[in-house]
């Protein structure tokens, strides 16, 4: 029983997520660390959409370890950033 | 001592570099918060020909951040008022003021006259127009944009690098991202971001340092946090812009500005008749949909397979999480395909809903 629990724990990883621009109006924070058990970027996004309902209506790109990635990219890094476009000038 | 002594004594610039600046032609789009510091530094640096295009007039509330202007500029066109101030700063260069709006009709001819285009505009329509016109005329684009306390800078279309659309493929819905005058901006922020843009322009002209191409620099003035994020080039996206080259002047703002994409919940579609379900994921992606007739056309091949769409039916597009299906719906809209929806749910949720529905 205890080994089983340990295994599950090992499969999850801690990911730091940074929110930029208008996204912080939804999340009310600029950064958080989540325990994530999935594999792909889209799974992480689904997790975030569950947590923040209106996030789905926003346009943004996802960066993993300072590189922009798409939703089918495997999560390998521990730092994810969500970057929306800015219009202002 | 000469006006440009500060440059000439630098071994990286010297008289040769100063001559390069004097021979360069740079167009700045927008003489607002970003445009003012960009214009000020390029003029002071002795860039030989500077164009500035802006249709707007100077208002009192602009003076909080638009540092070229003063009380005497109020009510004047911004391009004209900027030219007056800049000619006082440096009489030895040519400044061309265009007191008009940048459009699909005038952009190409205007851009042809310059070596580098700098985007200091304040709305997505203009930003996508500037990007597309830079792609078509093959000019490097020095991009900057701000939001409240944060900014982004990048150099696009430089030495075959990525374009703005490689970073953000689709313009956000009109009004979904507010601009500075509506939501507020820290006055010094465009000064910082605009100065970074001017710095990139000078580096491109002088051929020194590393140009911010293939990357976007992000800055937060409150936390001083900054990141450089790597952007990948999408040849497909760039080609889709180059395809409209010959009809660019006939393209209206709608090409740039996303009209509302229709989305639908799977539950509603399951109870509707006459629906064609289209999976826009790649063929290998899992899970497959069970209990529903689905055709698979990956997003990358959709444009060449429009004939597979049933004009008699409602087209319901889905993917893994609802992002690609939105892009697909947008693309079908551009192709004037009627009655298309992007399903809000992703494939695994769709399967769950089908199970519930069949019970």
> What is the highest CATH level, the class of chain A?
Alpha Beta
CATH topology of chain A: Ubiquitin-like (UB roll)
Head-to-tail CA distance between termini of chain B: 88 Å
Mean pLDDT of chain A: 87
CATH architecture of the largest domain in chain B: 3-Layer(aba) Sandwich
Strand order of the largest sheet of chain A: 2-1-5-3-4
Return the CATH topology of the largest domain in chain B.
Rossmann fold
Q: Biggest β-sheet of chain A: count, sense, barrel?
A: 5 strands, mixed
Tell me the CATH superfamily of chain A: Beta-grasp domain
- Morphology call of chain A: globular
Uncertain stretches of chain B:
none
Distance N to C terminus of chain A: 59 Å
User: What percentage of the residues of chain A does DSSP assign to strands (E)?
Assistant: 25-35%
User: Quick one: CATH superfamily of the largest domain in chain B?
Assistant: NAD(P)-binding Rossmann-like Domain
Examine the secondary-structure arrangement and name the CATH architecture of chain A: Roll
- Please, how many domains of chain B? 2
Helix fraction bin of chain B: 25-40%
Annotation field: number of helices of chain A: 3
Keywords (chain B): ATP-binding, Nucleotide-binding, Nucleotidyltransferase, Transferase
Subunit structure (chain B): Homodimer. Forms a stable heterotetrameric complex of 2 MoeB and 2 MoaD during adenylation of MoaD.
InterPro entries (chain B): Rhodanese-like_dom, Rhodanese-like_dom_sf, ThiF/MoeB/HesA, ThiF_NAD_FAD-bd, Ubiquitin-activating_enz
GO molecular function, one term (chain B): ATP binding
């Amino acid at each position: 029983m205890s080994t089983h629990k340990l295994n599950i724990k090992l499969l999850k990883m801690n990911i730091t997520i940074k929110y930029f621009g208008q996204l912080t109006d939804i999340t009310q924070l600029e950064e958080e660390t989540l325990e994530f058990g999935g594999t792909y970027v889209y799974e992480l996004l689904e997790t975030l959409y569950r947590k923040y309902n209106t996030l789905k209506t926003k346009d943004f790109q996802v960066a993993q370890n300072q590189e922009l990635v798409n939703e089918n990219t495997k999560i390998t890094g521990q730092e994810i950033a969500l970057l929306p476009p800015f219009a202002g000038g | 001592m000469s006006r440009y002594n500060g440059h000439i004594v630098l071994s990286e610039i010297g008289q040769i570099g100063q001559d390069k600046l004097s021979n360069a032609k740079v167009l700045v789009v927008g003489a607002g918060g970003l445009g003012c510091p960009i214009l000020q530094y390029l003029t002071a640096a002795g860039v030989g020909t500077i164009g500035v295009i802006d249709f707007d007039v100077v208002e009192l509330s602009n003076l909080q951040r638009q540092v070229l202007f003063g009380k005497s500029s109020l009510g004047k066109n911004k391009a004209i008022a900027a030219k007056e101030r800049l000619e006082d700063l440096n009489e030895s260069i040519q400044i061309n003021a265009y007191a008009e709006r940048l459009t699909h009709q005038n952009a190409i001819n205007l851009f042809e006259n310059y070596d580098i285009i700098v985007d200091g505009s304040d709305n997505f329509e203009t930003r996508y127009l500037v990007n597309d016109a830079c792609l078509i005329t093959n000019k490097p684009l020095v991009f900057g944009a701000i939001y409240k306390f944060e900014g982004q800078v990048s150099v696009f279309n430089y030495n075959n690098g990525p374009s703005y659309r490689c970073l953000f493929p689709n313009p956000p819905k009109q009004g979904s991202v507010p601009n500075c005058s509506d939501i507020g901006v820290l006055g010094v922020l465009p000064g910082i971001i605009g100065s970074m843009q001017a710095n990139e322009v000078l580096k491109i002209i002088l051929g020194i340092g590393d140009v911010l191409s293939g990357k976007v620099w992000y800055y937060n003035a409150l936390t001083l946090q900054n990141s450089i994020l790597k952007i990948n080039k999408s040849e497909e996206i760039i080609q889709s812009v180059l395809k409209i080259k010959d009809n660019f002047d006939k393209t209206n703002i709608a090409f740039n500005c996303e009209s509302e994409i229709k989305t639908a919940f799977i539950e509603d579609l399951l109870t509707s008749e006459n629906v064609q379900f289209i999976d826009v994921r790649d063929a290998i992606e899992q899970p497959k949909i069970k209990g529903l007739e689905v055709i698979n056309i990956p997003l990358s091949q959709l444009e060449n397979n429009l004939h597979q769409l049933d004009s008699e039916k409602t087209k319901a597009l889905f993917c893994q999480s609802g992002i690609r299906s939105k892009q697909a719906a947008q693309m079908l809209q551009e192709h004037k395909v009627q009655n298309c929806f992007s399903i809000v749910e992703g494939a695994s949720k769709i399967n769950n809903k089908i199970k519930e529905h069949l019970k």
